[in-house]
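Order emerges. One example.
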Amino acid sequence: MKLKTIKNRIKPLSVEDKKELIAYIKSSYSIFDDRSMSVKSCPDCFSNNIVKNGKRKGIQKYVCRGCKKNFNYKTNTVLSKIQKLNQWNDFVDDFVSLNITPLKELKKKLYLSEQTIFDWRHKLISAISLKLEPVFSNETVEFDETFLRLSRKGRRNMTITDKPGYREWRRKLEGDSDYNVKVLFAFGRDSRQLDLYQSHTGRTSLVDMQNYFIGNKFKDINVYSDGHNTYRSFFKTREIHHGEFRSKYHINPLDKDIHNQAVNSYIRGFKYFVNEHLRGVSTKYLDFYVEWYKFIHASRLRAFNKDKVIFNVTSEVCDNLVNDRTGLELYKQAEVSFVRFLNNNGRTNYGDCKNHYYAGKIAA
């Protein structure tokens, strides 16, 4: 039967029948079956002088004639230690469907441990994070910030003697406390792009604003925000047009176009995502979940919804994983980055982690 005939017969099928057909096709074909054909250079020295060097467990191996190292298409990528590629396919499918499936449900669905799924989630986000950086140009940007309490969830050997008292004290922390982590938000009204950035702890300073509003990311913009003294001073110094309003009114009564209600709705969505869907996250992994939320928004911006199946999304993501050479190192550096973040913000009690990459040799 010709492919065109098959396509014509698929069109009238219901959504449920199409999903069943996709599940059948996936069971007989792995999206990684042809990935080894895309290897063009050595992942270590980037030489194109490579030759095939047999197969191991069905995966094509190569050897570089320059540095003499053996490798395959997974070397130096987040896939390098992943053996169960069929489960990985299903995991990526679930991730791009924006279901935000709990770990316990994925454990039953994929027959994997919660720790494995937890690690896979962070590896996947690490690999796609650098591809999610929006650029705001010639448009109005709504800007605001929110806070999440500094969390050492999952840490060991914490020097806390009165834990009930500690929890009660933490519940009272609000706003600009040095024990709250600030996340900066920007939303472009024309492009509808959303950006989040884990910035600092405590009150926002001019240095924090300078670190976020860099030239290659924000070009010829107008900014609408509340009249925070730091915001006003920064935008005036940078000669960026700044429309402001009193924070308690949420809108400028003289010009009702000056508000940041859109970005505030995304802030509420992000806090619900972290606190309700994920039941709170460690500050160590907050950057990962910032990137995940950006991925969710970017996917929805591409008219991606759960009632319509987009066939090439999982394949597209996996192509990016195979060609990515930075995600694995970002994943490995999570503990180092967390300790550095705490040290830079005056926190020294960060406990221990069972991180198997950098245990015992954390660089401050």
